[in-house]
């Protein structure tokens, strides 16, 4: 059946993978794992593992071996020939990699708190050429590209491939009623009688243009709408997912038809790989039961390179998905930028607007610099009142944001005196200020530390950590500490 007429077609690859084992088997794995080496998963690895376990990454049954990895990097296909555009690898350090014996070793995969999530049967261990991977997958080795930078400079140099036995899914304490596995979401679609489902991917707050685009896509395709925002890792600097989900909930409750719209969160770690990522996103949504997918300009692109040009052609993502949509079982719904026509009080695709018409739009940079940092609410033509209020609360005006001022210098140079004067002046203007004085910190937070370089560095790192937490919660902090080493400062 075609993508437009299918009813809950088979997932990508023909089978919905579920790697969760029985409670009895999970108990056995936990017992045996005491003898296995343990790997504490990174934030990205936890996202990948969760979607491997639930079937979101069907047909994958674990972290890729080298043949699948090479095929994906260079041909966008697994060794079996199945289309798959993104390497899903378990990267580890060299010391850990050398403890493993392919074919016999098993690894306990744990979260940051030491909870065992899965067991990995080690099949292969190899040292990856991460620069070659970045060039193949992202067509870039620039540090300005977050995916390429992560691959080359933040991931570990050794990869471990093998199948997964899932003990338990990662714990989420936020928005539990909005988190569905592929099997659960497919069952919900079947219960609702939804035959056509159009999915919308977003990592940003939704404004009026997004609302218009999604409603139009659902109407034009005769489909029900799945708002499926990413709540795993996105582009550094993006609005946090707690704020975004509050916005999505407010929009769903007030401006969408609850009988034709469903909100479900996706714990995906994005790579910002542009065209490849559009294919990946479509495959994932296919596994969750969607058969239409909205793709706008520069889908999953990281923005501009160091020369001010986009990393990817804005139309490349939708063209690549159109090419492979039939194989995936997902119809690409391409849309251009939506702009506001003030004299008609409506939105339209920019390509459908006559050249002499006056249009309005606000970029993400303008949202941040012209409105949020100045304490101005976004205009009603651009966003809903609920969205404007949530963003204003989460991102206060610059004069209400947190900041840190750090005084450094030799003993008796006047650091504490100047810090005290500045603190009084700030409080005079209505700011509450925390002082972190080096001498005071040493009697409490850093009690027991000496004056070796290592101890001095530890003291400064501790002060820095406390200061960063104060700033993150919109507080003002003034630090006065002998900070002799530039690297630590």
SSE topology:
Elements: H1 23-32, E1 38-40, H2 43-54, E2 62-63, H3 66-75, E3 90-92, H4 94-97, E4 106-110, E5 116-127, H5 130-138, H6 146-154, E6 158-166, H7 182-192, E7 197-200, H8 208-221, E8 224-227, H9 241-255, E9 261-263, H10 275-287, E10 292-295, H11 316-328, E11 331-334, E12 338-341, E13 346-349, H12 364-371, H13 385-394, E14 403-407, H14 415-428, E15 433-437, H15 438-443, H16 453-472, E16 476-480
Parallel strand pairs: 1-4, 7-8, 7-10, 8-9, 10-11, 14-16, 15-16
Antiparallel strand pairs: 2-6, 3-6, 4-5, 5-6, 12-13
Helix pairs in contact: 5-6, 9-13, 10-11
Tally of extended strands? 16
Could you tell me the radius of gyration in angstroms? 25 Å
Largest sheet: 6 strands, mixed
- What is the straight-line distance between the termini? 62 Å
Tell me the number of helical segments per DSSP (H or I, 4 or more residues long). Answer: 16
Q: Which secondary-structure class do the elements indicate?
A: alpha/beta
- Arithmetic mean pLDDT: 93
| Helix content class | 25-40%
């Amino acid at each position: 059946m075609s993508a437009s007429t299918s009813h809950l077609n088979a997932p990508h690859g023909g089978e919905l993978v579920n790697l969760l084992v029985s409670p009895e088997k999970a108990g056995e794995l936990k017992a045996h794992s005491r003898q296995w080496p343990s790997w504490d998963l990174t934030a990205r690895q936890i996202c990948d593992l969760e979607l491997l376990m639930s079937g979101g990454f069907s047909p994958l049954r674990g972290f890729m071996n080298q043949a699948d990895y090479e095929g994906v990097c260079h041909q966008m296909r697994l060794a079996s020939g199945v289309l798959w555009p993104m390497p899903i690898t378990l990267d580890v350090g060299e010391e850990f990699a050398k403890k493993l014996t392919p074919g016999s070793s098993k690894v306990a995969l744990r979260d940051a708190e030491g909870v065992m999530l899965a067991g990995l049967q080690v099949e292969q261990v190899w040292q990856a050429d991460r620069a070659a991977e970045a060039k193949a997958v992202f067509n870039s080795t620039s540090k300005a590209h977050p995916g390429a930078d992560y691959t080359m400079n933040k991931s570990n140099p050794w990869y471990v491939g093998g199948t997964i036995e899932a003990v338990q899914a990662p714990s989420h304490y936020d928005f539990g009623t909005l988190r569905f596995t592929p099997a659960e979401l497919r069952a919900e679609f079947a219960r609702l009688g939804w035959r056509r489902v159009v999915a919308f991917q977003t990592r940003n707050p939704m404004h009026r243009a997004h609302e218009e685009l999604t409603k139009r896509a659902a109407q034009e395709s005769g489909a029900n709408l799945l708002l499926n925002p990413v709540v795993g890792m996105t582009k550094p600097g993006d609005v946090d997912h707690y704020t975004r989900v509050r916005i999505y909930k407010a929009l769903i409750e007030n401006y969408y038809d609850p009988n034709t719209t469903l909100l479900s969160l996706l714990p995906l770690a994005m790579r910002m790989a542009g065209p490849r990522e559009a294919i990946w996103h479509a495959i994932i949504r296919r596994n969750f039961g969607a058969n239409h997918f909205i793709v706008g300009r520069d889908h999953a692109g990281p923005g501009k390179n160091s020369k001010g040009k986009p990393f990817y052609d804005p139309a490349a993502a939708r063209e690549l998905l159109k090419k492979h949509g039939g194989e995936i079982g997902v119809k690409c719904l391409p849309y251009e930028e939506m702009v506001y026509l003030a004299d008609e009080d409506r939105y339209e695709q920019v390509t459908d607007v006559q050249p002499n018409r006056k249009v309005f739009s606000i970029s993400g940079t303008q949202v941040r610099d012209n409105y949020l940092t100045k304490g101005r609410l976004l205009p009603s033509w651009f966003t809903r009142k609920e969205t404007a209020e949530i963003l204003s609360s989460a991102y206060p005006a610059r004069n209400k944001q947190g900041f840190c001022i750090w005084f450094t210098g030799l003993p008796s140079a006047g650091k504490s005196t100047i810090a005290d004067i500045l603190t009084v002046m700030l409080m005079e203007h209505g700011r509450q200020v925390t002082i972190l004085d080096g001498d005071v910190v040493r009697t409490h937070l850093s009690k027991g530390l000496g004056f070796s370089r290592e101890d001095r560095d530890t003291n400064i790192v501790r002060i820095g950590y406390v200061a960063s937490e104060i700033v993150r919660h919109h507080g003002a902090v003034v630090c006065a500490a002998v900070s002799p080493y530039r690297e630590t400062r």
